[in-house]
Amino acid sequence: QDRSLDFHALCALYAVTDVALVTSLRDGMNLVSYEYVACQGSKKGVLILSEFAGAAQSLGAGAILVNPWNITEVADSIKHALTMTSDEREKRHRHNYAHVTTHTAQDWAETFVCELNDTVAEALMRTRQVPPDLPSRTAIQQYLQSKNRLLILGFNSTLTEPVESSGRRGGDQIKEMELKLHPDLKGPLRALCEDESTTVIVLSGSDRSVLDEVIPLILSFCDL
């Protein structure tokens, strides 16, 4: 007979039950599993839980998980629960009881708010304004006053002229694009390489042979 129980009667039933059988075919949380574990104090009853229940993700380690469509498996699990040793019952109950008593609604709310605040902070960092440009006059003054200077320059798309290309760029494709050093940069780059106080390093994903063809005049001055 299907009938409902009031809260106190339901808690009493949970407390004296040796085995709780939950055979949900589909659900979200299944609070019955949590309520049963919470009411089991010193009795340490066994929870048989459907693997399709939402609670299986959190209480599965302490419960006996079953496929409710498999009648033989369910029957064997009931027998195993009723004949289980006290040590195994103790271990299973201890795991589930610790989870239920620590993962409370208050704990969930605090975790949710904390993660929400972290998300807001990350969003603010992503939308933060770009820092202002480096004052060119100050940068030039400090550059001239320094004794040892290291300049690391990217080659592709930085020192070269713009190249129109569609699709992915492989090593052979880069050669075919015939990269050329930007004409406005030939003089300044050579002057920097000839400066004994300045070390210039050019970084590129292109093959060395490609760079040898593009900048043969300054190859002996730069570290490539």
UniProtKB/TrEMBL annotation:
UniProt xrefs under SUPFAM superfamilies: UDP-Glycosyltransferase/glycogen phosphorylase
Alphabetized GO MF terms: alpha,alpha-trehalose-phosphate synthase (UDP-forming) activity; trehalose-phosphatase activity
Entry GO CC: cytosol
Membrane spanning residue stretches: none
Source taxon at top rank: Eukaryota
GO biological process terms held by the UniProt record: trehalose biosynthetic process
InterPro entries: Glyco_trans_20 (IPR001830)
Pfam family, one: Glyco_transf_20
Protein name, per record: Uncharacterized protein
Source organism of this protein record: Aegilops tauschii subsp. strangulata
